[in-house]
What we know:
The chain is of the alpha+beta class. The chain has helices spanning about 5-10, 10-30, 30-35, 75-90, and strands at about 55-60, 60-65. The protein has a two-stranded antiparallel sheet.
Amino acid sequence: xxxxxxxFYGPEAGNKIEIFKKGMELIEKKYSExxxxxxxxxxxxxxxxxxNHYGIIVNSSGISLYxxxxxxxxxxxxDESRELFKKIFNS
Length: 91
């Protein structure tokens, strides 16, 4: 089955979104102790997850990353996430 990001946004953007998601998983693993010490947002999770704190908007203007207003993540995690996004989507 084809990836939905590729179906909706085309192969180039779909591929970049997948690379970004995998990179964010690596950031979450890097800071796993931080997330383990946080209460889960959803009852199916054992602890908080990085994807609970951000969103991606794709429209005719391009793609953008935002962090939720109520996110209280360490600034190092936010900055590293933004740098990853810039590296992938602004190249």
